[in-house]
Design a protein that fits this description.
The chain is of the alpha+beta class. The protein is built from 6 helices and 13 strands. Pfam families: DUF2931.
Length: 218
């Protein structure tokens, strides 16, 4: 999630219509510190505060309670956009085409190792839109963008906007914007389009760029 526009997922689960099961998720850190500028820049040194970093060290990780081996038909996320205290429900349908991508074995970079795109990453935006990627093979694959299923007046636990406005992280988000010398609103949507990945923006990529520059100077 974005450092300037963090979110809190209050409920998430997968549903299989064919096999007739619902699998809630547990785990994953909801700590706001995971999206702090300091923390994100430990992994992406040139992070600007707006873009969406894709990393297990930054993103919240959720695990199915039942550890179902089959892929659900749909994933539901109930979440809060903390910067503007809006409450959304996202439904993401996993099509046969997406299942085929997940089941395909791939090579991990140039190594003789196999991997598969078996994890979903959701980039949740302050207007309720959700961008979706598949990860698991170093380079994420963009799937598409999903509009919110609905917007509510409270989160899934019944807490409203006034409750979130009283929480400490409302001020922390404002402090992040102040530290960068920017305004949170209106939202600069073009800057939220930026995606940070290890291959392109991580410390590994920076070391590789420095090495190539040194070699070119010889």
């Amino acid at each position: 999630m974005s450092s300037l526009y963090p979110v809190s997922v209050t409920q998430a689960y997968g549903i299989s219509e064919v096999e007739d099961w619902t699998s809630p998720t547990i785990g994953g850190s909801q700590s706001l510190s995971r999206s702090s500028l300091k923390h994100v820049r430990e992994h992406f040194p040139k992070y600007d505060g707006y873009g969406l970093p894709i990393s297990g060290s930054v993103n919240t990780m959720l695990t199915q309670v039942a550890r179902k081996k089959s892929i659900p038909d749909s994933i539901y996320l109930y979440w809060v956009s903390l910067a503007n205290q809006r409450f959304f429900v996202t439904r993401f349908d996993i099509t046969p085409e997406i299942v085929a991508k997940m089941q395909q074995l791939r090579h991990w970079g140039n190594r003789e190792l196999h991997c598969s795109l078996n994890q979903f990453v959701f980039g949740l935006l302050p207007n309720g839109q959700a961008k979706v990627w598949l990860t698991g093979c170093r380079v994420p694959e963009y799937i598409g963008e999903v509009a919110p299923l609905m917007e509510g007046k409270t989160d899934s636990n019944g807490f409203d906007k006034a409750y979130y406005q009283r929480k400490y992280y409302t001020q922390e988000i404002k402090d992040r914007a102040k530290a960068l010398g920017v305004d949170l609103f209106p939202v600069p949507w073009d800057r939220l389009e930026r995606v940070y990945t290890y291959d392109k923006d991580g410390e590994y990529a920076l070391r590789k760029a420095r090495k190539l520059k040194q070699q070119a100077g010889k």
